[in-house]
Amino acid sequence: MMLSPKASYQAAPATTMSTMGSMAAINPSVQYSSQMPGSMNSINSYSMSPMNNMGSMNMNGMNSMNGMSPMNSMNMNTMGTMNQVMSTSPAMNMELARASSLANQMNAVNRVRTDNKTYRRSYTHAKPPYSYISLITMAIQSSPNKMVTLSDIYQFIMDLFPFYRQNQQRWQNSIRHSLSFNDCFLKVPRTPDRPGKGSFWTLHPDSGNMFENGCYLRRQKRFKCPKREAQRVTQRDGRTDEHGEETTGSTGSPHMTDTTTAQQQQTQQQMPQPKVEPHTMSPPPPNSIQSITSMSNNVPTSLAMARPIPQQAAYVSGMGAHMLGPGQHPSFNHPFSITNIMSPAEHGKAYEAMGYPGYNTMSPISSMPKSSMEQTGYTNLTTSEPSYSQLGTQQNPIPNSIAH
DNA sequence: CTATGTTTAGAGGCTC
DNA sequence: GAGCCTCTAAACATAG
């Protein structure tokens, strides 16, 4: 029997809505200011606008990075298009801004630390209150094209949170696992025109309500693609899944209840099936990556057989594990498709045109209930995270009545 | 060889 | 307490 070492540094507590509500008055900067007099100017960025936070975060991240990495330029690019991103998913950017604010505080506290002997522990050692799925989602959403490579995800996380600049092998393995294991992440293969290692990763368009409880540490329910689940069952049992929920529920992943399966299948069925003639596909915008559009001729045979989609509609096809599937969204119009890279502002329109109303509110981050955001004022950080409670004087700054 | 991706297994915490 | 979610570890396969 193997003992998990995680208890010694991480406990991954989930924060319930009630806890979130009660935490509304808790401002991390206030908590730490009581321990670090005079440091408010440096760390009270929670009262700042998200954009300010985002900007300062990135600069902090950049300052602490060694040299120029591809991701650095990506972050700069992200910053450059922040206005567009904001228009695509405001709530998502609130979360990103909050995450960046947290990173900002980490760095600020790091600076304060040198002037304050009483401060014993750096934010650098604190594990950010986000699940890996949340972090991956943030990385994807922060990308102008909503598609990132694995290394981009790594860099995004390390840029944002110094905590993840250590023990990289451990958490990066978890990142890879999360990408492969969770249906909400879709793998988009590279085109011959864009050689390189690894694929691109994007979000499944139907995975929008993963974090509807407003908690980014733990999803209320896990998104599962019925089609992919059926594939798993088929592979596992060596037979065709013809009984849908029953088979899925009995032999499927232990992470999925029958109820959830039924709900999601219903959602899938209710999702309007766009009827877009291939020839009506608009030419890519001027700033699109033209070279990628040749992907339709590069669909692996095995994958093409698995998904008999029209050749004209073949986007970045492939069903390796969790490629975008037919019926879920047409490839040639999928806002995330690399064959259809468009401005964030166009994403919403495209989605609405293909029968996905409210795309702008689909992102996991943006699915945070408005009431929750109003209650929390962006402060729904799961401050019950033990690693945070060990900050400062190593006394838990959060009253037990609130933290638990 | 290294990075990437998949899969399995188990532990701990949370929700119902 | 059962079921679910997340995290971690590890083995293995594959691509560049």
UniProtKB/TrEMBL annotation:
Residues 247-256, 374-404 have a biased composition (Polar residues). SUPFAM superfamilies: Winged helix' DNA-binding domain. The keyword Metal-binding does not apply. Keywords: DNA-binding, Nucleus. Residues 127-221 bind DNA. It comes from Saccoglossus kowalevskii. GO terms for molecular function: DNA-binding transcription factor activity, RNA polymerase II-specific; protein domain specific binding; RNA polymerase II cis-regulatory region sequence-specific DNA binding. GO terms for cellular component: nucleus. Residues 257-270 have a biased composition (Low complexity). This is Forkhead box A. SMART domains: FH. Residues 225-295, 368-404 are annotated as: Disordered.
